[in-house]
Amino acid sequence: MRVAMISMHTSPLEQPGIGDAGGMNVYVRNVASHLASHGVEVDVFTRATRASQGEIVEVEPGFRVINCVAGPFEGLAKESLPTQLTAFTGSVLEFAREEATRRSDVPEDACTRTGAGVYDLIHSHYWLSGQVGWLLRDLWGVPMVHTAHTWAAVKNLGLADGDTPEPESRRICEQQIVDNADRLIVNTAEEEAALTAAYDADPARIAVVPPGVDIDRFTPGSDRATERARRELGIPLRAKVIAFIGRLQRLKGPHILLRAAAELIRQHPEQNIRVVVCGGPSGTGLERPDELHDLAAELGVSGYVRFLSPRPPEELVTVYQAADMIAVPSYNESFGLVALEAQASGTPVVAARVGGLPMTVTEGETGLLVDGHDPSRWADALGRLVIDDDLRIAMGQAAPAHAARYSWDATVERMLTEYRCAGDPTCSGVDGTPRRSPAGARTD
């Protein structure tokens, strides 16, 4: 099987935590890599953002990233990317046409104008890619699978204060994708319910396939590993460390953590509390990159907060290991990979009760869930783990076993089942439900 994976607005090779790179980048890269290990050939098409990348990047056998020229390499905000959908699609078609002439296993009667016959299936990620995938599906005559990662209608229901709502134009585009995709892959049953409620999606074409976590890389380590990690990060060994890992945007709630931590530090000065914020500025709602630094100063906790730049997974694990707990105060999370990575690393999580986080975190066993985003309520939840050493340690010990239930191999095995069923109305997916392809799909 050959899969054309579309990730227009961000490359799986980009560092998560910078710009628009986040959990979706981790997801696309791991799914593509594990598909390749199962004998599937995957080409991930993304928009080129610098000339030095080259057109084709061979990540590993069976997994390539194709950098498509669509607009200027730099200076094009994500909000402007819809203007480049035609250019991007044209670049994908040009590559497929050339690939059809290069490959001996492409049928001779393959359409040389569109490159039909090169790929067996399209898997698009995010709504921009879904629009591209929809057109390619019709041109190539192959099934289209779509994973949204975030939905405009759902996101707008849980906006952070000061955040900008997603435009109606995006919701309309998502509705078209929902109506026309052969299969919609969602992370959780909660996302499935939201999709059917907000977009009138056909449940027969939805499959719940939870993401995984790299349990070989994210491990608890040891007391010595924690000591070494704290020494490398410049964190006092005896401190109680609360960490935030992710993009610095209001949607992720880092400002909630700072306000809660300030209250907690005032209430319990004897606990020697420290906060680590690891990530880069991104998205809407933060006017300046140093806005969180200013907030920490305003709250009088600058001396207790350490800001770290985004790190690759092989370095990020030390941040998880150095922390006593990870805070995930997001306003919306379709799943919550950070929470899962933290637990795999033996670190309990305090998370917002939103999206997929109630499934990712087992409340009372591997972490705590917080209703709403009131800093006082967050201070209470964080304070409970700061003060109760036995509870925090027990949660940390239980966390890796919970995380081990989610593996990328299991994710990809379920994904392959859905791939094989896409476009076949008689096929049953991973949950045994008969699937059917879109019929009479709308375009409005």
From TrEMBL:
<dbReference type="GO" id="GO:0008375">
    <property type="term" value="F:acetylglucosaminyltransferase activity"/>
</dbReference>
<comment type="similarity">
    <text>Belongs to the glycosyltransferase group 1 family. MshA subfamily.</text>
</comment>
<feature type="binding site">
    <location>
        <position position="341"/>
    </location>
    <ligand>
        <name>UDP-N-acetyl-alpha-D-glucosamine</name>
    </ligand>
</feature>
<dbReference type="GO" id="GO:0000287">
    <property type="term" value="F:magnesium ion binding"/>
</dbReference>
<keyword id="KW-0479">Metal-binding</keyword>
<dbReference type="GO" id="GO:0010125">
    <property type="term" value="P:mycothiol biosynthetic process"/>
</dbReference>
<dbReference type="Pfam" id="PF00534">
    <property type="entry name" value="Glycos_transf_1"/>
</dbReference>
<feature type="binding site">
    <location>
        <position position="320"/>
    </location>
    <ligand>
        <name>Mg(2+)</name>
    </ligand>
</feature>
<dbReference type="InterPro" id="IPR017814">
    <property type="entry name" value="Mycothiol_biosynthesis_MshA"/>
</dbReference>
<keyword id="KW-0808">Transferase</keyword>
<comment type="function">
    <text>Catalyzes the transfer of a N-acetyl-glucosamine moiety to 1D-myo-inositol 3-phosphate to produce 1D-myo-inositol 2-acetamido-2-deoxy-glucopyranoside 3-phosphate in the mycothiol biosynthesis pathway.</text>
</comment>
<feature type="binding site">
    <location>
        <position position="170"/>
    </location>
    <ligand>
        <name>1D-myo-inositol 3-phosphate</name>
    </ligand>
</feature>
<dbReference type="Pfam" id="PF13579">
    <property type="entry name" value="Glyco_trans_4_4"/>
</dbReference>
<feature type="binding site">
    <location>
        <position position="126"/>
    </location>
    <ligand>
        <name>1D-myo-inositol 3-phosphate</name>
    </ligand>
</feature>
<keyword id="KW-0460">Magnesium</keyword>
<feature type="binding site">
    <location>
        <position position="321"/>
    </location>
    <ligand>
        <name>Mg(2+)</name>
    </ligand>
</feature>
<feature type="binding site">
    <location>
        <position position="9"/>
    </location>
    <ligand>
        <name>1D-myo-inositol 3-phosphate</name>
    </ligand>
</feature>
<feature type="binding site">
    <location>
        <position position="78"/>
    </location>
    <ligand>
        <name>1D-myo-inositol 3-phosphate</name>
    </ligand>
</feature>
<comment type="subunit">
    <text>Homodimer.</text>
</comment>
<feature type="domain" description="Glycosyltransferase subfamily 4-like N-terminal">
    <location>
        <begin position="22"/>
        <end position="212"/>
    </location>
</feature>
<protein>
    <recommendedName>
        <fullName>D-inositol-3-phosphate glycosyltransferase</fullName>
        <ecNumber>2.4.1.250</ecNumber>
    </recommendedName>
</protein>
<feature type="binding site">
    <location>
        <position position="23"/>
    </location>
    <ligand>
        <name>UDP-N-acetyl-alpha-D-glucosamine</name>
    </ligand>
</feature>
<feature type="binding site">
    <location>
        <position position="252"/>
    </location>
    <ligand>
        <name>UDP-N-acetyl-alpha-D-glucosamine</name>
    </ligand>
</feature>
<dbReference type="GO" id="GO:0102710">
    <property type="term" value="F:D-inositol-3-phosphate glycosyltransferase activity"/>
</dbReference>
<feature type="binding site">
    <location>
        <position position="347"/>
    </location>
    <ligand>
        <name>Mg(2+)</name>
    </ligand>
</feature>
<feature type="binding site">
    <location>
        <position position="333"/>
    </location>
    <ligand>
        <name>UDP-N-acetyl-alpha-D-glucosamine</name>
    </ligand>
</feature>
<dbReference type="InterPro" id="IPR001296">
    <property type="entry name" value="Glyco_trans_1"/>
</dbReference>
<feature type="binding site">
    <location>
        <begin position="15"/>
        <end position="16"/>
    </location>
    <ligand>
        <name>UDP-N-acetyl-alpha-D-glucosamine</name>
    </ligand>
</feature>
<feature type="binding site">
    <location>
        <position position="150"/>
    </location>
    <ligand>
        <name>1D-myo-inositol 3-phosphate</name>
    </ligand>
</feature>
<feature type="region of interest" description="Disordered">
    <location>
        <begin position="424"/>
        <end position="444"/>
    </location>
</feature>
<keyword id="KW-0328">Glycosyltransferase</keyword>
<feature type="binding site">
    <location>
        <position position="311"/>
    </location>
    <ligand>
        <name>UDP-N-acetyl-alpha-D-glucosamine</name>
    </ligand>
</feature>
<feature type="binding site">
    <location>
        <position position="323"/>
    </location>
    <ligand>
        <name>Mg(2+)</name>
    </ligand>
</feature>
<feature type="domain" description="Glycosyl transferase family 1">
    <location>
        <begin position="227"/>
        <end position="400"/>
    </location>
</feature>
<dbReference type="InterPro" id="IPR028098">
    <property type="entry name" value="Glyco_trans_4-like_N"/>
</dbReference>
<feature type="binding site">
    <location>
        <begin position="20"/>
        <end position="25"/>
    </location>
    <ligand>
        <name>1D-myo-inositol 3-phosphate</name>
    </ligand>
</feature>
<feature type="binding site">
    <location>
        <position position="247"/>
    </location>
    <ligand>
        <name>UDP-N-acetyl-alpha-D-glucosamine</name>
    </ligand>
</feature>
